[in-house]
Amino acid sequence: xxxxxxxxxxxxxxxxxxxxxxxxxxxxxxxxxxxxxxxxxxxxxxxxxxxxxxxxxxxxxxxxxxxxxxxxxxxxxxxxxxxxxxxxxxxxxxxxxxxxxxxxxxxxxxxxxxxxxxxxxxxxxxxxxxxxxxxxxxxxxxxxxxxxxxxxxxxxxxxxxxxxxxxxxxxxxxxxxxxxxxxxxxxxxxxxxxxxxxxxxxxxxxxxxxxxxxxxxxxxxxxxxxxxxxxxxxxxxxxxxxxxxxxxxxxxxxxxxxxxxxxx
Length: 264
What we know:
This protein has a single domain, classed as LigB-like (Protocatechuate 4,5-dioxygenase, Chain B), CATH 3.40.830.10.
């Protein structure tokens, strides 16, 4: 079995794959990139998604056989609160994730009742619409320490040789009060820094990510870094491997520059 890459993806807004009209069309390029990721990765044994929409006091792994749904958005049409993404979970992979984390001295737990949030089910629907690949989530750890999330990624690196696709799911720009034209210049600035940082050699890249909040427009890009920290897990699991930008647009939501990356 060949080693899988890892990814940091921008997962888009709410339940976008189930919408239509002008709002839905804003995600066409993102959707195409997610389909290409699925073609690159094939059908893995499982997908481990690290979503910006789930945090716990310690790293926690979804461990149910048939995960439910978490409709963690508001203001969308009624049918979007009936969505079902029927991918199975994987208690076996969940146990392996916990084993690897704890083997690295990282406290972790299991959550059998946790369901898929939209940071997972929206992009995974675009990647695997038949829901025929097992999917589970790993939570963020509260306080978002980049070093702790990089360390979690390092601990989970063996999964890449075991057929598990690690996907950090967030958004490279996530300031809900600054979309559209007002985001144009700061998002370009932050995105340019991010692209340069991720192209740096392993130790240099790690150091830059540990100090990410010193980047240009960092706190405009991420007033709260829940949608950025999933990147750390994806990088940690491929710490000394090259990055490649797999999605990039400069007019997302009327002005935002946004990107997704592959590692390895």
